[in-house]
Write a structure and sequence with these properties.
Blueprint (H helix, E strand, L loop, with lengths): L5 E3 L3 H6 L8 H12 L5 E5 L8 H6 E8 L4 E7 L6 H15 L13 E7 L12 E4 L15 H4 L13 E6 L10 H11 L1 E3 L7 H7 L7 H48 L1
Parallel strand pairs: 4-5, 5-7
Antiparallel strand pairs: 1-8, 2-3, 3-4, 6-7
């Protein structure tokens, strides 16, 4: 099979640190989120995010941005390379913290913002790996009927978003390693680009041309290219250390099993 022409792009985490914070480049993020949410997303501004206040080590492993949309929602977009203990709790904390920090002191609950958390992950999160995009949200159903609740309009208080449970955070987890590189729709075009750091010329998803042009590796000047290459070298080194540690643990486990079998055979002969 002949490989289609493509354009090499910088990694998305580096784009978050650099070009995507420029208002002129919001169209890249808008294109991706529009494909993911399956509705038009317009970004008005980028706000201070959790990652911007984290330690230096956390910044290298995880980078994020917080977008304010035309509908006054908040969308956390993060890229994380290495797994961490209590990942799920950290994810829940990040969404809850964003809700709290975006409600002013003394403001009514009606001003609580809808928060979405979108994670591009370079590690496995599922033991079976049967998908590459996972969506989580809070739903209320009858304990006996199992039917979803239809809330009274007086309790909803927010007619902007679709669905009565709109006030609760929603999560999108995208473990890129699980994507099989089989592009079926516009969202797959984005996932392919993030996983492989390239955009095929055949891609036509809204915003994908902006991704191709504005994240073009060849358009980096010499200083930017050195910084980006150094960034990649750091992660290759970190990844190597993690994989080495995993192998050492596995080797120790195998040695322990072998020693146990030897002891068992020895005791059996005595």
């Amino acid at each position: 099979m002949t490989r289609k022409p493509s354009r090499k792009i910088i990694t998305f985490d580096w784009a978050i640190k650099t070009v995507l914070r420029d208002k002129a480049n919001f169209d890249v993020l808008e294109g991706f989120l529009t494909a993911l949410f399956r509705r038009p997303i317009v970004i008005l501004d980028l706000l201070e995010s959790e990652g911007n206040r984290s330690s230096e080590n956390a910044k290298y492993n995880r980078v994020d941005l917080l977008a304010k949309t035309e509908d006054n929602e908040r969308i956390i977009v993060e890229v994380q390379y290495l797994s961490e203990m209590d990942y799920w709790r950290r994810l829940a904390y990040g969404a809850a913290k964003t809700i709290v920090e975006n409600l002013g002191l003394g403001e009514p609950y009606a001003r609580v913002k809808k928060v979405y958390s979108v994670s591009l992950l370079y590690f496995d999160i599922s033991s079976d790996g049967d998908d590459y995009i996972y969506h989580g949200k809070t739903e209320f159903t009858g304990l006996h009927t199992h039917n979803p609740i239809t809330l009274k309009k007086s309790l909803v208080g927010d007619e902007i978003r679709v669905g009565e449970t709109n006030v609760f955070p929603e999560y999108y987890l995208i473990p890129l390693k699980c994507f099989p590189d089989a592009v079926q729709d516009e969202l797959d075009q984005w996932v392919y680009a993030f996983k492989n750091n390239e955009v095929l010329d055949e891609f036509t998803a809204p915003g994908i041309d902006a991704l191709k042009e504005k994240l073009d590796y060849l358009k980096l000047d010499e200083r930017e290219r050195r910084m980006f290459d150094k960034h990649l070298d750091y992660f290759r080194s970190e990844w190597g250390m993690v994989e080495s540690a995993k192998r050492e643990v596995e080797d120790a486990r195998k040695e322990g099993l072998e020693e146990g079998r030897k002891e068992g055979r020895k005791e059996g002969r005595e």
